[in-house]
Design brief:
about 475 residues, two-stranded antiparallel ribbon
């Protein structure tokens, strides 16, 4: 089957060979791609979704090879079709996007794994709700990844005696790994990219707190009643101690988290946007990014050096979750190039996705905020939510400035909520989702399949998002 797919794509690529000498633009156009170019991207997504269902043992031992197959397949066909553009896109994807992305995750994963929260934590509905509430609050302060990595292990330990634990992890992903990051640019990557493009640092807090609280309120209510239902069924197996005691070890790592947050903020400051490496007139690494990567690497090394081994052992810390994210997202980032370029052609009415313009922009030129919310959200569920945010941000901006977009209508709010909220719809919608899933499975919690998780998100989140769109957009 793979051979047939490769052969079909190779033949298809030949028809584009004459496009090797396009103008002087560093980027290709939406017109240069057809929907066939989505095959490698869809291939890696379907592999993530289907192979574990067919043979989970094969997937566990070979997911890196499967990911590499789709990534190399795409690069080879892309190189044949667009020789002059291949190196540019590889540098742009990996230097500008993937390396900063994975280094931030690595630093937060390492530092959070060096903080051991233990004690008498009896997994009652009240305690579980409190952990989710703390995590949701911290997500905007230390990022969804930092909050997720800090609290997922204590949540698992507190409920180690319970049989029904899947719902705990699913709601944790909903709230801590996604929706909680709505209030600051540090909270979630799409909002940080908005900050880099000129959106005020305080804009998310001022404008997004109402829809964030609205969505969170209903999710918390559903969670509490669902967890209470399962708890009552299992109460006879509950731990005998009702006293709550918490002990935190590895506190020095909290200081390192502050350095991580500082590095992220510093990388976005205008005074640090000087280019230190460019290719074809496009900045690949800024001074701010270079400093950020250096700080993140140092923080990772320092955390490993100063954290006693027994703390990481107590956290059942392994490198498998970050390895899985790195190997899978390395392919996801490169194979979604055609999808992103096609989306850029929407407002220009060019390319295979040009039809989308009629559903996001009225005839008088005004934006249809509800459609911006749903399209940004749905595509963020399957594409990386950060570049999806940028595409629709650019479309909504049009010929105006960022100040106009921040203060006119609810379009920016719709885009921001769609990208952040609906990152919770799939395992790949936001990077922490996959890491939380992997850590849970390491702790012998049988997590839902890709489609199984979507069943949870569609059943619980979709109705809430429908009401949200009716009220706020």
């Amino acid at each position: 089957m793979f051979r047939k797919i490769f052969y079909s794509l190779f033949l298809f690529s030949i028809t584009f060979a004459e496009k090797n000498s396009h103008g002087h633009s560093a980027h290709l156009s939406a017109e240069d791609f057809s929907l066939f170019w989505l095959i490698p991207f869809i291939g890696i997504l379907l592999s993530i979704a289907v192979i574990p269902l067919i043979n989970s043992n094969f997937w566990h031992h070979n997911y890196g090879k499967v990911s590499a197959f789709w990534g190399l397949l795409f690069i080879i066909v892309f190189a044949v079709s667009f020789t002059d553009y291949t190196l540019f896109y590889i540098l742009e994807v990996y230097l500008r996007e993937f390396i900063p992305f994975i280094m931030l995750l690595l630093a937060l994963f390492t530092v959070s794994g060096g903080i051991l929260i233990k004690g008498d934590l009896n997994g009652t509905p009240k305690l579980n709700t409190l952990i989710l509430l703390i995590g949701t609050s911290l997500a905007s302060i230390m990022g969804t990844t930092g909050a997720s990595m800090l609290l997922i292990r204590p949540l698992i330990r507190a409920n180690s005696w319970r049989k029904n634990k899947v719902h705990l992890i699913v709601f944790f992903i909903f709230l801590v790994s996604n929706i909680g990051g709505s209030l600051t640019p540090i909270g979630d990557p799409p909002l940080f990219l908005g900050f880099l493009k000129g959106v005020d640092f305080t804009w998310p807090l001022i404008y997004m707190y109402k829809p964030m609280l609205f969505v969170s309120f209903f999710i918390f209510i559903i969670f509490y009643f669902l967890d209470t239902y399962f708890y009552k069924k299992e109460k006879s197996s509950a731990l005998k101690s009702n006293e709550l005691s918490i002990k935190i070890e590895g506190k020095i790592n909290f200081i390192l988290i502050l350095f991580v947050i500082g590095a992220v903020i510093l990388s976005g400051l205008q005074s640090f946007q000087t280019s230190i490496f460019s290719y074809h007139g496009t900045t690949m690494i800024t001074l701010g990014t270079g400093i950020q990567l250096t700080i993140l690497l140092l923080v990772t090394i320092i955390s490993l050096k100063i954290t006693p081994d027994e703390i990481r052992i107590g956290n059942a810390f392994t490198w498998e979750p970050i390895k899985e994210v790195a190997k899978l997202f390395a392919t996801i980032f490169i194979t979604m190039i055609p999808a992103i370029e096609m989306l850029k052609g929407v407002t220009k009415e060019i390319g295979p996705m040009s039809w989308m313009k009629t559903i996001i922009i009225n005839e008088d030129g005004s934006n249809i905020d509800t459609m911006y919310f749903w399209l940004t959200g749905i595509l963020s569920s399957f594409l990386d939510n950060a570049p999806t945010y940028v595409v629709f941000f650019t479309a909504a901006l049009g010929e105006h400035n960022v100040e106009w977009l921040m203060n006119t209508g609810n379009t920016l709010l719709a885009i921001s909520c769609g990208a952040v909220f609906m990152g919770a719809m799939t395992y790949i919608g936001n990077a922490p989702n996959f890491m939380v899933k992997s850590i849970s499975e390491e702790n012998e919690i049988k997590m839902p399949s890709f489609f199984g998780y979507m069943g949870w998100s569609i059943l619980i989140l979709f109705p809430i998002f429908i009401v949200t769109s009716l009220i706020f957009f």
